[in-house]
Amino acid sequence: MTGNWPGRRCCPPENWPRAPADRDDCRPARPGLHHAKIPVADLGRSREWFESLLGLRAEIEFRDDDGTVRGVAYLPLGGLRIALREDPPRAAALAGWDPLALAVPTRADLDTVVACLDERGIKHGPIIRATLGWLLSADAPDGLRVRFYTEEQHG
């Protein structure tokens, strides 16, 4: 079965690779996402961006041996913890990439996000009709593209 993307192939679940029968007991009972760790070049600047835009609250700060904070983990946002870790080379390598898509309920909520981005002078693209819902992309301080995707689907 071919999906919506040229050159990509979607397989129905019955065709997905399976673990050997004797290994079924190794699978977690209910796998889920625990956290997403994002590399950043400047932790202070990125903290300001993520905290002010998303309302994140720090849960844990990670310090190196001299006491300098090099990372932070936030209280869960919609069930997912987001962590930032200072790592300039990896942050530079991910510039322009979009590994994080945050869910918003409706298309109208994207208008609210646009207003917040504009108020803060944050570069973003237009709201577009995506595969299932609507999508908005914004650039975090190091060029990482953060997407806001609606749970509401178009007809």
UniProtKB/TrEMBL annotation:
Annotated Gene3D superfamilies: 2,3-Dihydroxybiphenyl 1,2-Dioxygenase, domain 1
VOC domain ranges (all copies): 32-151
Highest taxon listed in the record's lineage: Bacteria
InterPro entries on file: Glyas_Bleomycin-R_OHBP_Dase (IPR029068), Glyas_Fos-R_dOase_dom (IPR004360), VOC_core (IPR037523)
Name listed for the protein in its UniProt record: VOC family protein
Source species: Amycolatopsis echigonensis
Lineage: Bacteria, Bacillati, Actinomycetota, Actinomycetes, Pseudonocardiales
